[in-house]
Amino acid sequence: MASSATTANSAKQIFEQFRRIPSVDDADCKAILERFSDFVMRLDDIPVWRPSSDNSGNLTLGDMGHGRRIELLIGWWQIYPSPMFIETANAIALSRVNSFSPWQDASVLGSILVRYLALPDNDRAPLEEIVGLVEQAIHEMFERSLDPDDLERLINTVDENENSLGSLFETDIATAIPQLIENIGENLDHVDSDSTLGEFATTIKKMAKRVGHDPNSVEIAKEAIQRRIQEVDEHSVGDSEMSVTGEYPRTFDRFDDQDLMSLFASLITDDN
Length: 272
Hints:
Blueprint: H1 8-19, H2 26-34, H3 37-42, E1 49-51, E2 59-61, H4 66-79, H5 83-95, H6 102-117, H7 128-143, H8 148-160, H9 162-183, H10 194-211, H11 215-245, H12 257-264
Antiparallel strand pairs: 1-2
């Protein structure tokens, strides 16, 4: 059964269904986790994204993200402390420490860190390396040029775990918010939804208030967002007009009497 897992999602589902069987005990759980060894060895090669089924060339989410995979492996290790679980989790974290996604990974990485900090000191040692990488990954995400909604996800992760994470990322938040506000005008070309842009303006205003950022800079940022909204609206109107009233070159064929006679000759019956 364990060997049939093709994704992290299916592996998790198999294990969770197995452990819900009333007769299954801890020894049984350890035994089935041992059978996941081949799957764990190839986990890092299983793609998170897959081509969309509509053949559009886009990608769609095909499996749990890398943060969730790390969480899964740590959870399995706590049931069956095989080195392969921690080694694979470390490898995933190390190879992607600079490419985790705020949208996909912020919350789960924060949860991993919170649970680690809640452990007794004597139980932390085996997880020290991987949790250090998780913390590094969160710091790195704060340093990027993020959209307001992605930065908000990171901040929310910290705020929801204020007692554990607040002091760790206080400086990151205080630095990232001004950086976002000052540079927002340079990072809007990829956004083509006026509703999303409107939410950006609201988010920036809220963040600025949090750190007491210069009101003039906030107004400049909001103006940049408004200009982008106008660009999006104008582009949308232009596309609409083109689809409805767009002109196209027309050519008119001219036929003389001989051409018409030739064209309809097969339809004319000679009654004479």
